[in-house]
């Protein structure tokens, strides 16, 4: 009887573990499909290595994103980027991300080299960027409620960190931004070489925005409409559309971006000469709206050594 009871406990724990993992994957996938909103305006380097060193001086960005959900282990992400304009044509950068969702943790650290080719007046440039670094994923065994010796868990954690990279290109001027990026180069070109979960990964990103300056008797206004496209593995392609509205005299920006996977991001930015702070709330309007109250994002930018 004792052996039979132990067998039932083990048999019961494995389905629970599988259900927990599947739930984590679902919520984590949704978090990945709604990325940091700061990558569209405040920190374009976060998604596109071609943007490293485009602005003067050293720019350090810290970001934190947490899903508002009662579900234990709800997804959260942390980012650290630093990019520096070494010369008028060369930029370098560091891009570190850490994503956690339930039992899963993915850490990525990339170094970047970017080249900015001047094309003419109005600050026109053609920008190229390449990032290389390390990507690593783990299951946190200490958080498992169930059979910790499961073969699939051991196999996942035995996989070694691997070399990865990103490539980006962009055309920029005082008003116009056109950009495209291919993240996760190893997964893109060596599809059989990764033994990790490979779903909801962005395979291609493209965006276009245009700055419209408006002057009034009280303040200078800037409106920057944006549209973006993301090709996602294992999911429908996503179209993003929104705007950034800036009141320069008050150092405040208001943002709104709608994602075609049925979510909307609303943001507020305080932008000073030496630093900037942003807060964003992402509202879910699709099928998962009953499981999460959306997500919030906090960001801090330090602008150092500017002329």
Automatic annotation (TrEMBL):
Cited InterPro entries: PorP/SprF_Bacteroidetes
Protein name: Type IX secretion system PorP/SprF family membrane protein
Keywords on record: Signal
Signal peptide stretch: 1-31
